[in-house]
Amino acid sequence: MAGHSKWANIKRQKAVVDAKRGKTFTQLSRAIILAARNGVPDPSGNFQLRTAIEKAKAAGIPNDNIERAIAKGAGTFSGDNHSLEEIRYEGYGPCGVAILIEALTDNRNRTAADLRVAFSKNGGNLGETGCVSWMFDQKGVCIVQGVVDEDQLLEASLEGGAESYEMTEEETAEVVTEVANLEILNQTLKDKGFQVTDAELRWIPSNNVEVTDSDQARSLLKLIDTLESLDDVQNVTSNFDMSEQLLSVSVV
After folding, report:
1. How far is CA 191 from CA 146, 173, 197, in A?
2. Contact residues for 102 (Cβ-Cβ < 8 A; gap 6+)
3. Domain TACO1/YebC-like N-terminal: where (predicted)?
4. How far apart (Å, rounded) are the C-alpha atoms in residues 173 and 214?
């Protein structure tokens, strides 16, 4: 299993009892704002907005907050003078691991400064635009839980236009498709009786860097954790590969 996939699973599990609840609320609220801005402010006609709202409700965000975020994205919320900008940053971590950061910010100078400090304090460096993005392809990913029959999952995935799938944990799979096909795949899997717990856009690396040194592994994971803790950061993606044993030791 690629280390970045396992790390994503660990982060999802931690998020359930994450003490940084405010950070989660900020991320999810901003995702709603962005989705409403990029499409119609009606979840029935905007798949990105619909999934963002589902995640927000699952995290316990009140309906009033969700409606306020939609209004901000639609530009109908009075008194909102902050304009969020979607920016992608790129850099390198320990061992030359490539890192992509997706951010939503109302002050790109502040965000860049915060990222630069995070990289420099954890053995990495913030790079120029395009320095690592060529190593990644953006895909749509459905997280499916309760998979007991892989043949049925394969059949449903193919019918939904999936490119591939991977069992990441016991009875849990990640099904991958083209970005434009994510909504169709999501609905097909649900129609076939599968429990889709998340449908998201993700940057997937075309090649991985194997990390075997425990000190470098610890520095790398600390860097990623630090980046993810920043208020303006929405997602962090990397191309490291690490054994589960080393990953577990380094996370502790």
Report:
1. 15, 17, 14
2. 86, 87, 88, 233, 234, 235, 236, 237
3. 5-75
4. 28
Instruction: Determine the pLDDT at residue 14.
Output: 45
The tokens for 201 are 């856009």
CATH architecture of 3-74: Orthogonal Bundle (1.10)
Same fold, 85-134+208-241 and 137-205: yes
> How far apart are alpha carbons 214 and 200 in whole angstroms?
31
207 contacts: CB under 8 Å, gap ≥ 6: 135, 239
Q: What fold, for 137-205? A: Alpha-Beta Plaits (3.30.70)
pLDDT tens over the chain, length 252 residues? 344 555 555 454 444 344 445 567 888 888 899 889 888 889 888 998 999 998 899 888 999 999 999 998 888 776 655 678 889 999 999 999 999 999 988 899 999 999 999 999 999 999 999 999 999 999 999 999 999 999 999 999 999 999 999 998 888 999 999 999 999 999 999 999 999 988 988 899 998 899 999 999 999 999 998 998 898 998 899 999 888 778 776 665
Give me 247's structure tokens.
């990953």
Q: Could you state, in order of their start, the residue ranges of all structural domains in the chain?
A: 3-74, 85-134+208-241, 137-205
In angstroms, rounded to a whole number, what is the distance separating the alpha carbons of residues 27 and 103?
10
Q: What is the pTM (predicted TM-score) of this model?
A: 0.80
Q: What is the CATH number of domain 85-134+208-241?
A: 3.30.70.980
Under 8 Å CB-to-CB from 143, ≥6 apart: which residues?
172, 173, 174, 196, 197, 198, 199, 200
- Say how far apart CA 195 and CA 198 lie, in whole Å: 9
